[in-house]
Amino acid sequence: MKNMDASAVSGLSAGGVYILMLFLSKEVELTIGKLGKQRFSRGYYMYTGSALGKGATSLKHRIARHLRKEKRLFWHIDYFLADENVSVEAVIVAQTSKRLECNVNSHIKNMSAAKVLVNGFGASDCAKNCGSHLLYFPEIEDADCLVRGLVEYLNSVGNVCVVVVD
Description:
The chain is of the alpha+beta class. Helix content is 23%, strand content 28%.
């Protein structure tokens, strides 16, 4: 995983929704907590989550945690991010006090050719039967265009911050 400076998210407020744009460089089989062994194809992934608490459960702490290499594996996304073939390409954040991860996840599915590879991934507490909060893209022809579309959508729900990893 690329090491991203967590200071990029230090100014975030207590809560919001976020999207991790990820790239998996080769096909892998990973054990994802209680979901067990799962096969992941090479390509791009977008993971949608939210953090609405304060302190350790705040948005800035949740994202900083996702970006750390060393951590106890707890959430489904932790198991995925722990693989050496996964890199974080960008983090898109909208600061809001509302739980919007399902809406954002649905929007991503509707605006792109995203697929669900692992049912239940990141969706244990899903209120809208999303199936998965990790979406797979075999290819993204224009990542900038996709990110711009997401930023435009997220601007309607809160202040948006985009951090791109080189």
